[in-house]
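Extended Data, panel c. Modelled sequence:
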Amino acid sequence: MLDRTGRPCGRFFGRIDRLGQRGLRSPYEHHPGVEGFRDCELLDFARLHWSRLTRTERREIRMAQAGHRSVVPVDVFDAYCDHLVTSHHVAGKTWQASVREVLPTSEAVTVRANRFTVTAQHAVLCLGEERRPAPDAWWGGGRPPAGVSYWDDPVPAGAQRQIVVGAGLTAAHLITGALEAGRQVHWVVRETAERYQCADVNSSFFRPEGRARFDGVDRAGRLELMRQHRRASVMFEFRPLLQRAEADGRLVVHRGEAVKEIGEGVVCRLESGRLVEADTAVLALGTTPSSGAGLLPPDLVNERDGWPDLDERTLRYTHAPRVSVVGAAAGLMLGPAARNIDGHRVATARVAASIAHSLRHERVPVVTGA
């Protein structure tokens, strides 16, 4: 396994640490142990550490045991991941590397990293997603103006007024952190109302019947389903806090507004003509699946509408059959839950079976990921 941080899940935990995120959106039921092993599941792992949990965290465990939606603390999930890494000896198979190129041939795949090159029979790209950049029209392209940053960048110290642009869970975390720091927050939301829901996609897509909605549907139909169901939303837990802050005047919500431009200062001009001034602006514009572009030659990715050209049965690149995909980039094959842990499980089973069938007694595949 080649990972840019050198730690399995390192990039994920680094991102949520930056946001100050304390709970996962995925409930306990989405985190069983490793398939095919007698493994400790996340719920059992949390119960084993019952004495270290708060009253609220214990209530969530009881909710999970009763079959209701529950929220998993980040520190519990972090410890559980360390448990899996240790019990399955994952750390000893992980190399810190920034992958530069993935070059497949008809017989092998060469992966060029910043410090070494390795060749294997197959490679699996588990690249996740990258932040969506702001439109060039907002400030003319290039680096953001002074005081403007993205959600995974540090916010300048000493800010008293902050603008948050975005409608999803990341925006909610940014707003919460700013309110806790005593800042007044202006929230710019393109939609006419905030969208609150438990999961980031309809829960049916986590089950076989939901994924079956993509079977036999043409490309246009799948693109429409992705547009409908891969929409920004906020967990219900944030609603009371945000509503109180808005009632108190600490939070000003600009609903149905879109940014036209952002200038030095920080001055944000909305499409309605309204000006919003602050000390800093943080952009949470969502993410886009990492399709493999930039690592694989463009003709092998054959990207259309932001999605790579994959074989639905094996999740291999149609034009590079020795390279497979697990994660968000498989969304057009598996549905919007491909970016979540349940989607990862389905994709992994499909990819592993395909590679095992090809390898027989050959070498283990190389995996590059975040």
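The radius of gyration is 22 Å. This feature is highlighted in the accompanying rendering.
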